[in-house]
UniProtKB/TrEMBL annotation:
The keyword Transferase applies. The keyword Acyltransferase does not apply. This is tRNA (guanine-N(7)-)-methyltransferase. Transmembrane segments: none annotated. It catalyses: guanosine(46) in tRNA + S-adenosyl-L-methionine = N(7)-methylguanosine(46) in tRNA + S-adenosyl-L-homocysteine. Belongs to the class I-like SAM-binding methyltransferase superfamily. TrmB family. PROSITE patterns: SAM_MT_TRMB. Keywords: Methyltransferase, S-adenosyl-L-methionine, Transferase, tRNA processing. Substrate binds at residues 126, 158, 197-200. Pathway: tRNA modification; N(7)-methylguanine-tRNA biosynthesis.
């Protein structure tokens, strides 16, 4: 997702209380930032953040961080969150950050993150861009550097080619494929408790099957 550049987006992000500024300063002490010290789940490439806002309300026992690299996209999330807070819906267990996920190991210490969500990640179809895909072996190495030993990555997409590439990367990188489906919405077990993302709603309403995998670090 890349929205047109929005004038003032950068300043709004810098001033926002919802956004963690200089996130690398919290490496090793993310628990101190939140009201409660509890497990930390992150979404990489959160877009406008609706998925995490829904999860944060459903799971007050989890802390969440949403990561997005474009100002214009993150700004839309901040605006939505501000609207909801005006209606009295608050998210004490949710922060956002504007950062490229390549920097994850500089932001979180080893074992600081319990779960990583990747939802409808950009496919980067050209072979020479494969390492930019958020399920490439290069990104799996970064996730390995921040997850707890039993940590999991959950990945959803409607892009079958990206999903098949990801299955190969998981195998080659020696991760465990704990569960997967090529049609999440018709898989009773895997769809239990599923929270839809904005892209998931859009693509499933067009009739696209949604693929999902749950992976964990190999021992
Ligand atoms: N997860 C949302 C959903 O499912 O509705 C948004 C999906 S959108 C297609 C993917 C988002 O990931 C975009 O907003 C893009 O800017 C962001 N993104 C892609 N690569 C990223 C990276 N390396 N670091 C942070 N965000 C990234």
């Amino acid at each position: 997702m890349r929205l047109r550049n929005i004038p003032g987006a950068q300043d709004a992000i810098l001033e926002s209380a919802y956004v963690v500024q200089e996130p690398e300063k919290h490496k090793g002490s993310w628990g101190d930032l939140f009201e409660k010290k509890q497990p930390l789940h992150i979404e990489v490439g959160m877009g406008k953040g609706r998925f995490l806002m829904d999860l944060a309300r459903l799971h007050p026992e989890i802390n969440y961080v949403g990561i997005e690299m474009y100002d214009s996209v993150l700004l839309r999330g901040l605006q939505k969150r501000a609207e909801l807070e005006q209606e009295g819906i608050t998210y004490p267990n949710l922060y956002f950050m504007r950062v490229d996920a390549r920097l994850l190991p500089e932001i979180f210490a080893k074992g600081e993150v319990d779960k990583i969500y990747l939802n409808f990640s950009d496919p980067w179809p050209k072979a020479r861009h494969a390492k930019r895909r958020l399920t490439s072996r290069q990104f799996l190495t970064r996730y390995d550097q921040i997850l707890v030993p039993e940590g999991k990555v959950e990945f959803k997409t409607d892009n079958r080619e990206l999903f098949e590439f990801s299955l190969e990367e998981v195998k080659d990188a020696g991760w465990n494929l704990d569960a997967f489906t090529f049609d999440l919405h018709h898989d009773a077990q895997m769809s239990e408790g599923n929270v839809m993302t904005e892209y998931e709603e859009k693509f499933s309403s067009m009739g696209n099957p949604i693929c999902k995998m749950v992976i964990s670090r190999g021992q």
